[in-house]
Amino acid sequence: MPSFDDIVNELQDKIFDEARQTYGQAGFERWRNKPYRGRPAKAEYMGAATGTCGDTIRIFLHIENDLVLDAGFGTDGCGSSQISGSMAAELAVNKTCEELTAITGETVLEALGGPNCMPEEDRHCTRLAANALHEALGDYYFKTLGMRER
């Protein structure tokens, strides 16, 4: 009879194999390691987007002089939301605010490896991530313009 640990390890291996098949090796690594996960210590701007699926992606930005110095993400969603939020945060770092406006769901999808990097029914997650990024940029503009007017 297999031990509890053997059963757990076998189950984990199956989950990892399924994730590799779903997202490819690069997507699996991003899902597993979650780069940019969490709110950076100096992030003062946040945006969120919620899809019809119920997933919410949040993007956090630290911006100085219209340049993104750090970014992070959070989500309550599926693996596709996790890798999309992670990539959107990565794409934002070292970009100017103007450059952020050009990041779309398609940009995120291509950076992840193109249409085969996730199931077709999950590709809307890349748009959620881009929308959350734009909301965070809007938060920056709202707060900085408001401060300048005072």
Describe it for me?
This protein has a single domain (4-149), classed as Sufe protein. Chain: A. It contains 5 helices and 3 strands; from the N terminus they run αβββαααα. It has helices at residues 4-33, 79-92, 97-100, 105-112, 124-149, and strands at 45-50, 56-64, 67-75. It has a 3-stranded antiparallel β-sheet with strand order 1-2-3. It starts with a helix and ends with a helix.
| Structural class computed from helices and strand pairing | alpha+beta
Number of continuous helical runs: 5
How does CATH name the architecture?
A: Alpha-Beta Complex
Round the mean pLDDT to the nearest integer and report it. Answer: 94
Instruction: Give the % helix.
Output: 40-55%
Q: Briefly note the CATH topology name.
A: Sufe protein. Chain: A
The number of domains is 1
Q: For the terminal residues, how far apart are their CA atoms?
A: 72 Å
Order of helical and strand elements: HEEEHHHH
The coarse overall form would be elongated
Number of strands: 3
Radius of gyration: 17 Å
Strand content: 15-25%
